[in-house]
Amino acid sequence: MSIEHTEKILLAHGGGGRLTTSLIENAILPKFQNPELAQLADSADIKLDASEVLFTTDSFVVKPLFFNGGDIGKLAICGTVNDLAVAGAKPVALSLSLIIEEGFEFDTLEKILASASQTARQADVPIVTGDTKVVEKGAADGIFINTAGIGTKYKQTNLSFDRILPGDRIIINGNIGDHGMTIMSQREGIKFKSRLKSDCAPLADLTRTILETGADVKFMRDPTRGGVAATTNEVAQSAGCNIELIETALPIDSSVRAAADMLGFDLLNIANEGKVVVIASEASADKVVNAMQQHPLGKDAAIIGSIADRDDDPIVELLTTIGGRRIVQMPYGRELPRIC
User: What positions does the domain PurM-like N-terminal occupy (predicted)?
Assistant: First the structure.
């Protein structure tokens, strides 16, 4: 076996020499072929026809690397695509950078790159630039991925906390907690009667569909780390309004609920990777829900609450199944590390 065809990543693969060139040309470029990436320039040359360009970046350190419904490659593409999508933008180009631990299996790297490539095609966005670094064994847990993305903002889109008013409705496109509980069940080796599956998915087509209805959409956010609890608390604080969530309206898979009960987690705090929280005017709420339900990623869409009165110290309350109220706190932030 020649040194260019090792089964594991070597430190030399990140050294900028012959092995680096081999890694890029044989393992990475074939997965993401497009004219911009093929130039292998220091910067990608992207032509944009828009007056407003959005730019975002995120890093992914999930453990385990492969989970039911996805893997770190798919997650890295979905995460950045979704950050652009919920801001009202069409994703037009991504970067993908790898930090790989010495000794990482080449076959595993190939699977992750193939998954990232397939997800990028599904989201209809090219990966036009990237970087690869190799660190010593023990300096990373297998592989970390950073993605960045640019998108062009849809015309006539006006999404901001400032537009949120009492009476607006809070909508979500489906079951909550699927991603976080899937990761936790695999991490803990717990098997349930029905296998849990992450909701990891690119949301750009769904958000475009919602915006094209002409509904009065005021705000969108993907409830990832911290889940619906973190997203709604952020909205309450930024908009200066109390929020009421309705427990009986929350779409939750029965197996996910059972897993959360067994492990002692509040599903409102659990990460999602294929969900979008939309705030729309009362008059437009049904139009948004109907549009979501016609889309494959929104068949379980529901109105889960509303914006209540203005308050100098706003809170999020859950109207419970038995008719009580409990305050939904901003999560502390350490319940589920390495979740995305």
Answer: 43-151
